[in-house]
Amino acid sequence: DKASIGVTGLAVMGRNLARNLARHGHTVAVHNRSEQRTRDLVEQFGAEGEFRPTYSAREFVDALERPRQVVIMVQAGAPTDAVIEEFAPLLETGDVIVDAGNAHFADTRRREAALRERGLHFVGTGVSGGEEGALHGPSIMPGGSVASYESLGPLLEDISAKVEGAPCCTHVGPDGAGHFVKMVHNGIEYADMQLIAESFDLLRGALGYEPAQIAEVFRTWNTGRLDSYLIEITEQVLAHTDAATGKPFVDVVADQAEQKGTGRWTVQIGLDLGIPISGIAEATFARSLSGHADLRAAARGLAGPARTRLSGAEAERFARDVEQALYASKVVAYAQGFNQIQAGSAEYGWNVDLGAVASIWRGGCIIRAKFLDDIRAAYAAEPNLPTLLTSGEFRKAVEHGQDAWRSVVSTATRLGIPTPGFSTALAYYDALRAERLPAALVQGQRDYFGAHTYRRVDREGTFHTEWATEERRERET
Ligand code: 6PG
Questions:
Q1: Any binding-site annotation on 355?
Q2: Is 144 helix (H, G, I), strand (E, B) or coil?
Q3: Hey, which of 182, 239, 350, 444 would disulfide with 345, CB 3.0 to 4.6 Å?
């Protein structure tokens, strides 16, 4: 009998997805450019389920029942195009190609349009959860046609993570919607990681706590509203001691954060769509700043504040305040990310259900958290919510925490501890709630030097002031 799905590209992510499918009772055709990986998979894990090892593109395609479902798990970019071109000519009308890698959504849109012309379905799907997730249940964000989801959806839902019985997989929307949502997931991931890292830095810098003590603080936080995978692994990383030196692990790691680029994409697209995702942008810049060793070495001697530690009552409250600041800043980062999805959905006509996205991020993915169920509920109650910040529980929590949030940002500023994530989140909050913004002055400046015109608060129309004449005159343009 034929396989119900096939996976080509058997590096660890592809291999684990194939194993996950097989473990759920699906017959999986497997294929890899170099044959050894295929043999290894079947040799090591063949007992887990029904695998059909194949050693050529033709053999792979012939092993699949129709409509064929071919999952590609290779490097994003040119390698993905190459593999598509290898298989597409062998497929027939109605067959489905699934790209489960971290592709740029614009590439996915291009590929989907081209393959649709050839009668094939192309599903760009986000898969989050790393190697472990791929094997035990990832969060899956498929795009592509509704028709493709009819055959593919049940399989993907079957192997996805489950939260209270609900699969962490849904049809996100057409063409590139799935990869777009995965991109924003990663942007939020960057922001969340940065905020957690700043919390660590504050507790260490302002209070002088050791990493093991801070691990303990995170362990406590993880029992409350911050309960999440990222806080949990932070605790583990901070509690870890380097075997070779006996020092805290975090102290022997070079302090230069790297990135494969999905965060950068999120920021680029945020700029293109005109959506202020300052939290994600600051997190991305913070990584790039950390990597500039020469710049940092050159600036290391610059003067800082005389006082760098907290003491007394301030110190006593501080950890609690940091928890408040972390929570509030996190709400901002997620609010911005969801606004970006909303904007992408409007721009490309995807009709993405934000509550459904929050729902499938509750389990399996890197940003999985208790908090995401609150976001799901917020969008369920009000699908066109302008920002999470004004929604019931979030509003209450952030308003309740704002004094602590302000105090943490000002303490950080006084002590010279950089908190770009906390600071930008607070600035976003204050800018959104401001009655008037100095943007009015910026418009005046633009009109002065470039006759760029402005709108008025009291009249419709577009205006320009004749700045050069003796008596400055306003006129409608
Ligand atoms: C996930 C992760 C995964 C990966 C990213 C981030 O959702 O499972 O986001 O996609 O870890 O590529 O990596 P960088 O930090 O290197 O950008």
A1: no
A2: coil
A3: 350
Distance (angstroms) between ligand 1 centre and the Cα of 435 equals 39
Closest by alpha carbon to 251, among 259, 260, 241, 243?
A: 241
**How are beta strands 121-128 and 139-142 bridged, if at all?**
antiparallel
**pLDDT confidence of residue 470:** 83
Residue of 112, 157, 189, 198 marked active site? 189
Ligand 1 center to residue 182 CA distance, Å?
10
What distance in Å separates the CA atoms of residue 362 and residue 371, rounded to the nearest whole number? 8
Q: Is 9 annotated as a binding residue?
A: yes
- Is the CA virtual torsion 9, 12, 17, 21 positive or negative? positive
Known catalytic residue at 189: yes
Q: What is the token pair recorded at 241?
A: 């001691």
Q: Can you tell me whether residue 31 is helix, strand or coil? A: strand
**Is 167 close to ligand 1, i.e. is its CB under 6 Å away?**
no
Q: What is the pLDDT of residues 332-353, one digit of tens each?
A: 999 999 999 999 999 999 999 9
370 catalytic per annotation? no
Tens of pLDDT, residue by residue over 427-446, are: 999 999 999 999 999 999 99
Q: Is 186 marked as a binding-site residue?
A: yes
Tokens of 116: 């649709």
Q: In what order do the strands lie in the sheet with 139-142?
A: 51-53, 28-31, 5-8, 69-72, 96-99, 121-128, 139-142
Distance CA 237, CA 176 (A): 35
